[in-house]
Structures are given as structure tokens and as C-alpha cells.
Amino acid sequence: MTAQNIQISEEAVLNALRQVIDPDLKKDVVSLGMIKDLRIEGAKVAFRFVLTTPACPVKDQLEGQAREAVTAVPGVGEVDIRMDAAVPRQRTVADKKSVAGVGNIIAVTSGKGGVGKSTVSVNLACALAKSGARVGLVDCDVYGPNVPIMLGLSSQPQALGNQIVPLEAYGLKVMSMGFLAEGDTPLIWRGPMLHGVIQQFLYQVAWGELDYLIADLPPGTGDVQLSLIQSVPLTGGIVVTTPQDVALSDARKGIMMFKQVNVNVLGIVENMSFFSCPHCGENTDIFSSGGGEKTSQQYQVPFLGRIPLETAIREGGDRGRPVVITAPEGAAGKAFSAISEQLAAQISTTVLASEPTVKLEI
Ligand SMILES: Nc1ncnc2c1ncn2[C@@H]1O[C@H](COP(=O)(O)OP(=O)(O)O)[C@@H](O)[C@H]1O
Ligand SMILES: [Mg+2]
User: How many Cβ atoms sit within 10 Å of the Cβ of residue 27?
Assistant: First the structure.
């Protein structure tokens, strides 16, 4: 009998695909409900492979394994796989109010200022958007909103009914106090006013449908952090740190803050990890090394990766052109992309682990 006239059953294809295991979710892709629209026409097998994020770090690996597994089924001549993604949404929590249309809210924090929270927020948001996800960035640093400059945004957002339309840059929807406040006017805020602003930024902005809303927070563990944590169900938080001891003891405070209020720590990002000399190419550990990873082990939270200290990152921030957009193949661009993938995988794992069953309903 030739390959052409063997009748291929759906069951045989699905059984073959059961050998493919998602390394993060630790289940086979059929049980996870990732195989959709399976069609068998003669020797041709076609299906949609729906991952939990378009920024999946093992997308190519999973596609390759699926293709190999199905090709090995007797009678299969051609395999047509359409890679797709549906990001799972953080489930609702009784005493918190979700933001309509927004699947996951991720808070970016650090114990102190200047470690690169805004830089990390902007570049991770851009990297996620580039992968095909629907992404928003809310600049919760009402005292020193840096996001507008880092994204080159200077216009004022428009109102639509009683909602504010976010500005857009590099495929992101963005809201910042910097769009509303005048120039360099110093801002003094009391707790209730801050709470009001955070509420408006969450619930009165026309975010539309988003997979990820990244919240760039001011440094420390103050009113803004509390307001955000008390208002919305967060999928989790990221702690940004630099590798030296002082910064790390601040990072521990960030981790403890999240743990105390039962927010998942999605991971630590170590920024300014080493200096890559643009002249000689040598890497120097200006702020010592390995601290972020050690802290992550100590507190049993994931380590998402390290970002070099590079002039291009600072220049990109000042010019409103994030390095992950202008130099995606450089060391910094690659580091941000890889971290965005690790983050997306952590989000999927966290959300699915909080569901009663792991099966995706897509
Ligand atoms: N990895 C890096 N390499 C070079 N400059 C950086 C890096 N990360 C941040 N910076 C610069 O350091 C300054 C502080 O970063 P920022 O993101 O505003 O910190 P934070 O939001 O934590 O206060 C900015 O000028 C930024 O461009
Ligand atoms: Mg900042």
C-alpha cells in the first residue's frame, strides 16, 4: 500500500501529538487543548497550534516537534501547521475589580529609583507587542513620569465620552501623567489623590482588548503600589534590580511587599549587569555579578534574565526610540526579547496554575 491510500485517523494524529510536551506547563499539547481545527484531507494534515502566548520562548521547538510527530504517522505526506496564540486571562478576584478587556496586569517595581524600571517596562512592553501580543503600558509614576520621553510621545490624549483614549507608540497603548501635567511643574500628591489617579488610569482609559498591561511603578513601596495592588487583580509583579548589594537589599523589599499582599512574583530582572565596552568588546562587571540570580534562589522566585549596561539603552530612552525596536539584534535588544519571552511564559504558567483545570478553552 502506498502512503497516498492509507486512511489517516484523527486519533492517530492526536496520539502522535500527545508526545509533544509544553516544557513550562508540563503537559502534552493535546491535553492542554492547544490543537484546534484539525483537518485531514488525503495525505495532508492541517491544524492550528494555539500557544498561550505569541512570545512563547519555545515556539519554534514546539512547532518542530509537532511537525516531526505528525510526519511520522503512517500515510502522512504533508503537515500544515498554523501557529497561533490565545493568552489566558487572570481570573477575577472577589474583592478586586478587573479592567474590562485586559487579560493580565503586571506591575514593574524596584526598591529604589534609577535602577531602570521604566527602561525595562518600556522595552519589555515593546518586545511583547512585537511578538504579536496586544499590549498596554500604564505609567504609574505620577511624580516623575518618564514613559512619554522614552516612547517619544508628546501629544495630549483625547476624551471619548467619559473615557480617555490612550496614545499609541510602537504598537503599544500608553497612558501617563506626563500627557496631562504641564512640562516640568513639580507635582505634590496626597494619598487619596494618588489613589484617584491610579483608578482613572485603570478604569477610565479606553484600553480595549489587551493581553498584557504593564504598569511602571514609582520606586519603593508607597501609596501608588498599594492603590494598584488593592484595586485590580494583578497577575504578578516583576522586581528590577542592579547586581550590587545595596540595590539587592532594596529588591528584597520589593519581593517581600508582593509576597505580603499575596501578589505572585513573576521574576527578577537584573539590569546594568555588566558593561560591554563598545571599543574593545570586553564585558566588565561594574556592579559585581550574579546577585539577582542569588536573590531569586534565596526567595524562590524566577530569575528572568540580565540586561547589559549600554549607552544605546540610555540613548534610546532619551530619544524615544527603545533599543528593542532600533537594535533588536544587539546584546541589549536580544536580552530584552529573551526576558519578555520568559515573562510571558511565567504569566501563562501562573494564570493556568490558578485555574481549577489546566485545559484551555479557546
Ligand atoms: N541597562 C542600561 N544601560 C544604560 N543606561 C540605562 C540602563 N538602564 C537604564 N538606563 C538609564 O538609567 C536611567 C534611569 O533609568 P530609568 O529606567 O528611568 O530608572 P527608574 O525607572 O528605575 O528610575 C535612564 O537614563 C536610563 O536611560
Ligand atoms: Mg521610572
Answer: 16
One domain, residues 199 and 307 = yes
Domain housing 68: 3-85
* Separation between Cα atoms, residue 207 and residue 137, nearest integer Å: 10
Q: Running along the chain, 362 residues long, what does each successive block of 10 average in pLDDT?
A: 72 98 94 96 97 96 98 96 96 90 96 92 98 97 92 94 96 94 62 87 97 94 90 95 80 89 94 80 74 87 94 96 97 96 96 68 50
CA of 134 to the centre of ligand 1 (A): 25
Whose CA is closest to 312, among 300, 324, 299, 296? 324
Question: Cα–Cα distance between 313 and 306 in angstroms, integer?
Answer: 13
358 belongs to a structural domain: no
Taking the whole predicted model, whether its pTM rises above 0.85 is answered as yes
Q: Using DSSP, state whether 117 is helix, strand or coil.
A: helix
- Indicate which residue's Cα is closest to atom 16 of ligand 1: 116
- Whether ligand 1 lies within 6 angstroms of the CB of 295 is answered as no
**Is position 311 within any domain?**
yes
125, 76: one domain: no
Q: How many Å apart are CA 44 and CA 76, to the nearest integer? A: 6
Measured between its terminal Cα atoms, the distance across the chain in Å is 38
